[in-house]
Design a protein that fits this description.
Blueprint (H helix, E strand, L loop, with lengths): L1 H5 L7 H20 L5 H12 L4 H26 L5 H18 L7 H12 L5 H25 L6 H22 L10 H18 L6 H29 L9 H9 L15 H25 L2
Helix pairs in contact: 2-3, 2-7, 3-7, 4-5, 4-6, 4-7, 5-6, 8-9, 8-10, 8-12, 9-10, 10-12
Length: 303
C-alpha cells in the first residue's frame, strides 16, 4: 500500500470509495425505512451491485436484482402449490430457471432467482408475498442509492484513456516506419499495434455504455473517437501491407523528409537510377500511412 503512494497512485480506486459510500448511505436509510428482517443484507447487496463501471452495467445489475426476485417468487408459489416434497420442488425450479434463461438468451445472472426459490421452498411459514415485497423494497433502497452515487459523484469517463491509447498508436506508428526504413533487414512487428487496437475497441464499448449525463455531447464524442478507431484500423492494414511486400522498395525524397520531420531515423540512402515497381508501391503506401496519420490527429482534436 505504501508503495502505491510512493508511485503516485492511490491505494484504492475511486469505484471502491464510491461503493463504500453507497453501502454506508444505504444502511443509514434502510435502518429507518427497511421492511424485512434481513434488510441490512439486501440493501448492501443492492448498493454494491449498482456501482458498476458504466451506467448500462449499473442498470443491468438493478434489473438482475428485481427480475431475480420476481421470477424466484412466482416460481416458488407455483411449485409450493403442487403436492411434491420441497427438495424436489427446488430441483425442478432450478432446472426451469436455467432452461428459461438459456432459451430466452437473457444476459441476467440466474443465481438470485434460484436462491429465492430455495429459500421460500425450504423455509416453512414464510409468506412468499410478504417476503418478496420486503426483499424488493430493501434491495431497491440499496440500488437507488448506489445508482445515485455512481452517476452523480465522479461518473465513470474513460475518454482520456481512449485518447491516450490513440496517441500511443501514433507513437508506435512512427516507430514502426522507422524500424522498417532504417537500412537493416529486420522487419517490424505489428502485434503491439494490434493489441492497442483491441484495447481501443474495448474502451469504446465501455464509453458507449455511459448514457445518462450529457447524452448529446457524449454521442458526438463517441462518434469522434470511433472515427479515430476506424482510421487506426486502416493504418494497421497499410502497415501490414508494407511489411508483407516481397521486395522492399526505396523511399522517395518527399516521404523521407516527412518521416524525418516526425523524428524517425531513416538511414536509407536516397534512391538512384530508374524508379522500380516496388518503389512506386512502397511510396504509395507510406504516403497513405502519413495521410491517415494526419486524419487521425485531426479527428482526435475535434470537439
Amino acid at each position: 500500500m505504501l508503495g502505491a503512494f510512493w508511485r503516485g497512485r492511490p491505494p484504492v480506486g475511486l469505484r471502491t470509495v464510491k461503493t463504500a459510500l453507497a453501502v454506508t448511505l444505504s444502511l443509514l436509510v434502510v435502518q429507518q425505512y427497511g421492511a424485512s428482517p434481513a434488510k441490512v443484507v439486501f440493501a448492501t447487496i443492492g448498493a454494491m451491485s449498482a456501482v458498476g463501471p458504466t451506467f448500462t452495467a449499473s442498470m443491468l445489475a438493478c434489473l438482475t436484482q428485481i427480475c431475480g426476485v420476481v421470477v424466484g417468487v412466482l416460481l416458488a408459489l407455483l411449485l409450493l402449490a403442487l403436492p411434491i416434497p420441497p427438495m424436489v420442488a427446488v430441483g425442478i425450479g432450478v432446472v426451469l430457471i436455467l432452461a428459461g434463461y438459456q432459451q430466452l438468451r437473457l444476459k441476467l445472472v440466474p443465481v438470485l432467482p434460484c436462491l429465492i426459490l430455495a429459500n421460500l421452498c425450504l423455509t416453512p411459514g414464510v409468506d412468499p408475498i410478504t417476503y418478496s415485497l420486503g426483499r424488493i423494497w430493501d434491495t431497491a433502497i440499496g440500488l437507488g442509492i448506489g445508482m445515485l452515487v455512481n452517476t452523480l459523484i465522479f461518473p465513470y469517463d474513460n475518454s482520456r484513456a481512449i485518447r491516450r491509447t490513440v496517441e500511443g498508436l501514433d507513437r508506435d506508428l512512427v516507430a514502426f516506419l522507422e524500424d522498417m526504413f532504417d537500412g537493416d533487414d529486420h522487419l517490424p512487428e505489428a502485434e503491439a499495434l494490434e493489441k492497442k487496437l483491441d484495447a481501443l475497441e474495448g474502451q469504446l464499448a465501455l464509453y458507449g455504455e455511459q448514457r445518462l449525463l450529457r447524452r448529446g455531447r457524449q454521442k458526438r464524442r463517441l462518434r469522434q473517437l470511433t472515427d479515430c478507431a476506424d482510421i487506426a484500423q486502416d493504418l494497421l492494414v497499410e502497415l501490414e501491407t508494407l511489411r508483407n511486400m516481397e521486395r522492399q522498395g526505396r523511399l522517395n525524397q518527399e516521404n523521407r523528409q516527412a518521416l524525418q520531420a516526425l523524428g524517425a531515423k531513416v538511414s536509407q540512402t536516397p534512391p538512384e537510377g530508374e524508379e522500380r515497381t516496388e518503389d512506386v508501391v512502397v511510396n504509395y503506401h507510406v504516403a497513405r500511412v502519413l495521410k491517415l496519420r494526419q486524419e487521425l490527429k485531426r479527428a482526435l482534436k475535434q470537439e
